[in-house]
Design goal:
The structure is a homotrimer of 273-residue chains. With 273 residues, the first copy, chain A, is α/β, with parallel strands linked by helices. Chain A has one domain (2-272): 3-Layer(aba) Sandwich (UDP-N-acetylmuramoyl-L-alanine:D-glutamate ligase). In chain A, 51% of the residues lie in helices and 14% in strands. Chain A has helices at 2-12, 25-34, 45-53, 67-82, 98-110, 120-128, 149-163, 198-212, 217-237, 245-258, 261-267, and strands at 15-19, 38-41, 57-61, 86-90, 115-118, 166-169, 174-177, 182-185, 270-272. A 9-stranded mixed sheet of chain A has the order 2-1-3-4-5-6-7-8-9, with helices on both faces. The first copy, chain A, is globular. The interface between A and C is medium-sized, with 34 and 35 residues.
Chain lengths: 273, 273, 273
């Protein structure tokens, strides 16, 4: 029951350490608060070990890398791993530059990520060790569709198996898989793509779900994906004709703020393969 | 009359230099504009002395420290002090890491802060030279309540006396004290805690109040605290059932935008001890 | 027809590389998405050449300079120039500090900017090699008015000629000029000045317009200025009595989200001199 995963966040108020990009960091903080978690941000290498030690999970997002924040990511990741914390990687723009690709690949070699969450283009880059993405959006030619679903599911499971983690590939159809099982999720709306950072927000919130549901990372990750998509649907239902992407951003976070386990349970649209 | 403090901001449009965290910086800028002030942000050591020189006040917030921004804080603080500017310290997360605690304590040794504003956990950390905070939220066990109010007021006055400044300890009950007098303020709503950065916003706005009311730092700080809490009340009154923390953030800044001295005067809920 | 410039953005979804300040970066990203473009942010020197190579345009904004981001600006600018990309400079706070002025002037010497967009105080600083601005707002004494319009238009054309670029000087009356022609634009509302970053947003969006209309930089820049001002007018028409500057920020981006070429064509208020 995915709704339980949400309830567990509200019951336990997990503290999440975020090393994330400066573009969408405010929205990441607000959605963590909205879902019942508590955010703290720190990327300075001298600060990250102390901060991650008081948290239950670590969210690493490479959307705006700096030399010093990369150092912070490695240090925080090592510390979080030594403490058995849940750790998530959001490889924003992997494939778009050598620094992003090499940083994501390098982090994967050193840090035992619980979940890696990205679009299909980013995940393919990590799988192939190379690739090209158009900015932070998935390559249109490579999106997950009903036509290529079987092969996409197989790809996700293989990726999860190879990297001993859960992988969440988000897009029009979302895939959340471990080596054996794949949630195929159909919540959400295309208009969410016109807001910056819905992926970053999902990664932050997903980390909270992982912390609050320590024994079920696959289910927790799937629940977070369903919750984000459902919030996109609920938020859209409150949009007025003059509202656009900026108001929609607020409406989605607001919907997370009001969502309870029962709403998520009823609204989640997925099949398990 | 606290309302006069607000009116003085609108009359004089104080320019406030902010060295603040990248999580909530946009909201800090917008609330400064909302209250009638003008913000400028700069943390690069080579830039801060020039910038602070053209301002009337300096707001230092340690929410996301970097080695270079720490250098910028010391340089800006020294310059602002030499010019007799109002200077505020927001010790976000003091107690959560050695770097944060040592930076806050170190800044206090070098810079004559007009006001130090934080939650009870952060202020206790500064008072004790050690301590533990859960992220950026006050330790629940240590919150100011009606039961411990007398001792909390005494603590605040002692802190203010020891550090020769005004201290603002914000929470469900807010305390704003100098060595002799303490405002006990009961504006605000608990739901404000589900928005990231209401404290950071208050610190920015409070700096503007200090600049606009140069001879009355205690009253100015108290007025800013009342204004923020009152904005939380007014903003909440405009919330619709579907609105959550993201919309609430906007509503609070909007309420500051419309607030005048008379509204603040009528709405402020405080006693002086 | 300025409306065509907007339509071309929606048809081509230009990818814009932004090296911009951390205060308003989220709004810049959202307005780029709202207008039909796609944003990517990167300022790390090791990352910027790869990122700018996959984009069509580069938006450089000096609002919160760091030593490393300045290096990133030079590297990205050189790469973008070598690729024939459109490049825009937003000299935020030029005149307010030596670092800002020298960086803006230094960038202008090395990088062939397509457009330089700022307020009159910033542009005068660049023209004179010195000057003073009050934070990020135009010096009131030096604003463009109907009384000084002739000399302001002449100044703009001369600046454009001297620097071989289009210049956009924004304020109550906006001027967009090349060496021969100046658009005098009267869209917008004074209340836009109470939102942080409307200028930064305009610069981001303008870069997208430049990329989508490669042969007409003057018209593209003028169209972006009209679109921003018109969005300010449309957004204001949806404001309720309790709404303030934070909601207005959302309403403006929302208006850009809904704007089409026909709306811009009808709503643009300008004369060509």
């Amino acid at each position: 029951m995915l709704g339980t995963c949400l309830d567990n966040v509200r019951k336990t108020t997990p503290l999440v350490h975020n090393i994330t990009n400066y573009v969408t960091v405010n929205d990441v903080a607000n959605i963590l608060l909205a879902c019942g978690a508590s955010p703290i941000m720190s990327d300075e290498p001298e600060d990250v070990e102390d901060i991650t030690s008081i948290c239950g999970g670590l969210n690493i997002n490479i959307g705006t890398l700096h030399r010093t924040s990369i150092d912070g990511m490695y240090r925080a990741g090592a510390k979080a791993a030594s403490l058995g914390h849940k750790i998530l990687l959001d490889p924003v723009g992997a494939g778009a530059s050598h620094l992003r690709t090499s940083t994501a690949v390098g982090l994967m070699e050193k840090i035992p990520f619980t979940v890696i969450r990205g679009n299909i283009s980013e995940i393919k880059t990590l799988a192939l060790g190379s690739g090209t993405t158009k900015g932070v959006d998935a390559d249109v030619a490579d999106k997950v569709t009903d036509e290529n679903l079987d092969s996409a599911v197989a790809f996700a499971k293989n990726f999860a198996k190879d990297h001993n983690c859960v992988v969440a590939i988000t897009g029009a159809i979302d895939l959340v898989a471990d080596a054996d099982t794949c949630y195929v999720i159909r919540n959400g709306r295309a208009e969410m793509g016109s807001i910056t950072g819905t992926g970053c927000q999902l990664s932050g919130m997903m980390t909270a779900y992982l912390v609050a549901n320590p024994d079920e990372p696959l289910k927790a990750a799937a629940a977070a994906v369903c919750a984000m998509g459902l919030a996109g649907e609920i938020g859209w239902s409150h949009m007025k004709p003059e509202d656009g992407n900026s108001t929609y951003r607020n409406r989605i976070i607001d919907a997370i703020y009001h969502m309870d386990g029962e709403t998520l349970e009823k609204g989640a649209k997925y099949e398990v393969r």
